[in-house]
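Researcher: Here's my situation. A collaborator sent me these components and asked whether they could plausibly form a single complex. I don't have experimental data yet, so a predicted model of the whole assembly would be a useful starting point for our discussion.
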Amino acid sequence: MTDPRDDIHRLQSILDALEEMWLRLPDAELPIAPAEAAQDAKIGADIIQAALRKDGQRRMEATRRAMEAARAGRAPTGKLLGDPITRRRLLEAIIANDNGKLPERLTVAFRDGKELTDAEVESILAALDKLGLLKGSGDHK
Amino acid sequence: MSTPESSEGFDEPDDGKLGPCSGAEDKYRSDDELRAALANLSPREIVRLVGLGRIRAIGSELTGEELFQTAVERLLEGRRHWRKDEDLVQCFRRTMTSLVKDWWRRQERVSIRAEFKLGEADTHAMNVAKDDTPCADRIIIARQELEEIKGLLKDDKNTLEVAMLLAEGEAPAEVRDAYGLTQTQYESALKRIVRARKKARGTGGNQ
């Protein structure tokens, strides 16, 4: 009995040969009329242009989402703390008023007058914010 | 002619092997390379790629345009990949061949689900249980295509014989040897098959 798949394989074998021929022949020998070739070139170019446009929009949207996500990730610090001076004052206020919540080493270092850079201040506040220690702490809300 | 609106129905992964996992940068061209190559295709190259889609779509229910569009979109979406060891034409050839197979696989699943009133959730179990017997539609369409080719070539005995030898799995060299054909004569026979189909359908496509 004939395997029902045979007809599929037979057709595929013919298509493989047609495909080989289509790829091997020089442009001038392809079995396609000039008008038909012009039409196919237009159809193909339209498909490519539309796909490239869609791809560009998709990438722009992805970039926008990534930027929003990055902004959202920085928002707690950015919203709570404006400039370096404000940030430093906030940290001083927390140490003065809420030092029971803070690691002793930090308060000792601060009291000892250890110079903290702006970046260190920001980093400490961000860490405190993550720990929820800034909630209700004075003027940062 | 307008471009096809949708390219649904090609949701299979690239055989699970072609995705850009570890070491992908060594195997695949970058997105930028792909976009640049697509944007710089000449009209002649586009004709060749669309024509390739038309040939590969024969025996499916897809048009050549739909297949070409889906290939372009899947490549740009990163769901199919352009290997470094192939040119763009080879990439399209491989991608479109794979897309047609996937399209049939999907049709076969839909057909089995409908027959046994299964839901989407049963797909996994169905995949495990299913053998690789193609669905009836696919067999019928292939048979119709073969019969059409035979009918179209009934007055061109030499070309018909070339087509039937190829259908039986003979390699091009064996077909040429069997009939003492030169490469040019062999290719002329293949061109006559393409032209006969186009003439019968009144289009360059596979519709």
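Model: Some features of this prediction you could bring to your collaborator: Confidence is low (pLDDT under 50) at residues 1-6, 15-19 of chain B. Residues 24-104 of chain B form one domain.
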